[in-house]
Structures are given as structure tokens and as C-alpha cells.
Amino acid sequence: MIDTATLWSVHTLVPLPVLVPLFAAGLTLALHRYANVQRIVSVAALSVTTAASAALIWAADNGPVVVDVGGWAAPVGIALVADRLSALMVTVSGVMLLCVLLYSLGQGIAEGEDEPSGDGRVGGTIPVAIFHPTYLVLAAGVANAFLTGDLFNLYVGFEILLAASSVLLTLGGTAERVRAGSVYIVVTVMSSLLFLTAIALIYGATGTVNMAQLAERLPEIDPTVRVALQVLLLLAFGIKAAIFPLAAWLPDSYPTAPAPVTAVFAGLLTKVGVYAILRTQTLLFPSSAAVDQVLMALALATMLIGILGAVAQNDVKRLLSFTLVSHIGFMIFGVALASEAGTAAAIFYVVHHISVQTALFLVVGLVEWRGGSTSLDRLGGLARLAPVLAILFFVPAMNLAGIPPFSGFLGKVGLITEGVRDGSGLAWALVLGSVATSLLTLYAVVKAWNKAFWQDAPSDIVRDRALPRGLVLPTGALVAFGLALTVVAGPLYGYAERAARTSMDGFTYVNAVYPGGAERGQGESVEVSEEDEGS
Asked: Cα separations (Å) of 149 from 73, 179, 327, 348?
């Protein structure tokens, strides 16, 4: 049991991943003339939020920690809920955001310096005043999306992400980035409109948007209406998660941004969509076999079409963008199995993929810095010229492909094992598709390795300059973090299993946020209730 003083301190940690970056964003905007101070504020803010999130992992393992925003309890007020799943996601995203920020400082993007473009030329100048505030707002939006216990507040988190990511995607103002940013904005606005429509219909059908209360009321409405609402939510989240056939926008949008921005997008933004699917499928729609079958089919198509697109690419950024789409299929595979073991494997795989995919895009930024390009036809000999860079690419690439004993292998084994146990035709198709996708992923990254690192270098292209320590250290830290997930895979997988168990049972989450007959369930703040009792 946790004593009252400890519980109070734990509750104060829950809003910090949202509030600290927002406060720091305003501070860095006010201090836009002082680049050094901006750096200190940004790094300090993300360090504090990462530490607070890590503490929440321990606290949430004893049960969900709920904070009522403004002191008003559910369902009237908005609840922030740190359960095992959300605490794990916020912590991993905090580590990633901090490493990418340090990388961006080393590359000079946050200071407005010139950056290399994909063809080896010097790119445009980045506007210094907006990077830090926008990046911190993005961090707050991610944390809000993971921690919220309210569907409308989840929509708010998505809109914060949309605003911040649109700015980051078009940094530098080049024609290519503006075009990609326009496509991204149109797609995400469409997703947001679908989500907002779904929220309105859900409120009309149930009278609430609080997720804990929805878990109790949705089973009581007409089954046809419930399925329609579920499909509408899946459409909105499927666009954000880049599930086939809603993923065509991603490979054309992500590679145009600076390397740190691309890394953040690849590591986090699609995972917010996956998290939303995971949360709503387990909590709000726990038993919908027909929809699960459709999700299985979409997961299989996402895997295979994504990886076939990756195999056909001759640019490392686009290759990794297609593998990103492909491996979203693994996560949806686990969700679609609708079992504790499948959900646990999906959670583990999400954590693994955030670290590995982010690290790979940072490494590609180093490749671009050292080789002057990301085109495989214009690269070569980097293993001899930059052996450290070769190692930094090789380790997460093998992890992504699922080579044992890396965490990617362990996550795929969990998914395949549960798929075999399920035994349905679609599950077996997904098992075979998973194996084929893993082999093709291995082929794609080995092709990239061979062309960029092993074959002879075009002498007129490769730059003769050393890698900056400010870029190598954050990248190495993130690669090491991915390796650490392998070392602690046992405890981490056990935590994922406990997270899956509490997510699937529904009662733990609902009882923490909305216990029947308690003050929280009446929608009154504790202070108001105490005043009523005193009078």
C-alpha cells in the first residue's frame, strides 16, 4: 500500500508531462532572442518530464493514478489517467523526445543554422525563434494524448500535435517541404473531422465522452450503432496510425523534413494513433469479432504492401518510411487478436519500434551529414570512412528486422505465438505474413547497408568531414536505449502483460476513474463535496 503523502506526491506527477512542456514552450517563445537560454529551458523541461514519467511507471504498477483537471471529477471534469499502458508510453516518448532534442541542438536546427539537403547541397536556414516552442508544444500534445481519460481531450491532444507537427514539417520553407506539409495538413484535418464527428455521435448516443463512463454505457446501446461508432473511430485513428489503405500520405511527407523532425514523426506520431486504437478497442469495444477480423486483414495488407514499397526504394529515408508503415501492421496484428497475450505483444512491440525507428532516422541524418545524400546510388564506403556510423546503423537495422536476440525478435515471437494459438485462417495468414515481412525487412536493410556502407564510394560525392559529437552522442544513446530494451526484455514484457491484463479487464480502469456512487462518479470536485458535508 502507498501512504497518503506518497500518493499525494504521485498524483502531482501525472500532469507534469503536459504542463511542464507547455510552460517551457511559453518561456522559450518569450526568450526567443536568447538561444542559449532556450536550449537550457528545453533540455531541462524534457528531462523533468521524462523523470516524472519514469516515476509514474512504478506508481501505475500499483494501480491507475487519476488526477481531476481543475478539481472537477468525472464525468463532468477531464481526468488524466496514468495506468500501466499510458505511463509506459509517456516514458518511452520522453526518452525519445529528449534524445532527438539533443540531436537537433548538435545539428544546429534549433539555432537556425544551415542543414544539408538530400542532394548534398546546403539547405535553407531554419527560423530559430519557433523551433523550441513548437517542439515543446508537440511534447505536451503527445503526453496529453497518452494520459487523457476523455475522448474530447484526446481530440485536443491530436489538434495540438497537428498544429505543432505542421510547423516542424515545413521548417526552412523549401518548396518540397511546403508541398509535403500541405498534404500532411489536409490528411490530418480529414482525420480530425472524422474523429470530431465520431465524438459528437458518441455523445449523442451515450451522453458522455468520458472513456470510463463510455465503457459502461456503450454496451447498452444498439449493437449496429455501436459498430458504426467503432468503425468511425477506427477510420480516424487509422489515418493517424498510417494503416493501409490510409497510409499513402506518409512516405511522401516524412522524408522531406529535417532528420530530427522526421525521427520524431516516425517514432511517435503514428504510435499515438496506434495507442488510440489500442485504448478504444480494449476499453470501449472489447468484444467485436467482426471488426477484429477486418483489423486482421488490414494488418496483413499493411505489413505486405508497406514492406514491398520499402524493397522498391533507392532512398534510405523513403525506405525507412515504408518500413514504418509495414511494421504498424505488427502492432495492429496484436490488437486484432483481442487477447491478453496479443495485446501484451503489441504493447511490447510499440515500445520497441519507437526506439528503433527513431534511432534509424537519426542515423540516416548522420549518413546524410557524412555522405551528402540519402540516395543509395550516391553513397558508399561509409563503413571504412565512418566505422562508428556503420555500427550505429547496423544495430537498430538488425533489431528492426527481428534478428535474435534483439527486442524486435522477441516482440514478433510473442505475436506469432499468439497468432498460432488463435488458429483462425486470418491469424495463420498473419503469422505467415509476419515471417515474410521480417525476411523482406532484412533484405531491405541489408540492401541499404551494402550500398551505403560496403560498396565503393563515389569519390565526387562523399564529404570529407568528421561526424559532430553533438550528433553522434544522442544517436548512440538512443541506439543504446534500444539495446537496453533487449537486456530488460523479461521485466518489460512482464510489465506489458500486466498492462494488457488491466486494459482488457476494463474494471480496473473504470473503477479508478469512475467508481459507482463515489464522489468522482457524481461529477463533483472533492472540495465541493466537503463543503456540502460541512453545511
From this structure: 11, 35, 27, 22
Q: Which of the 8 DSSP states describes residue 79? A: E
Q: How far is CA 377 from CA 117, 257, 370, 498, in A?
A: 16, 21, 15, 47
DSSP-derived secondary structure letter, 474: H
Report the pLDDT value the prediction gives residue 128, as an integer from 0 to 100.
57
Intervals of the chain under pLDDT 50 = 1-2, 4-5, 7, 110-126, 517-535
Residue 343, judged by CB atoms within 10 A of its CB (0-12, 13-18, 19+), counts as: buried
pLDDT at residue 417, as a whole number: 94
- Give the model's pLDDT for residue 225: 92
Query: What global pTM score does this model have?
Result: 0.89
Cell of 424: 483462425
In contact, 221 and 201? CB cutoff 8 Å: no
pLDDT score at 459: 58
Distance (Å, whole) CA 275 – CA 199: 17
C-alpha cell at 453: 556502407
- Cell numbers at 343, concatenated: 495485446
115/95 Cα distance (integer angstroms)? 24
**Residues 137 and 23: beta-carbon distance below 8 Å:** no
Cell of 154: 484526446
Measured between alpha carbons, how far is residue 327 from residues 124, 231, 303, 346 in Å? 32, 22, 6, 11
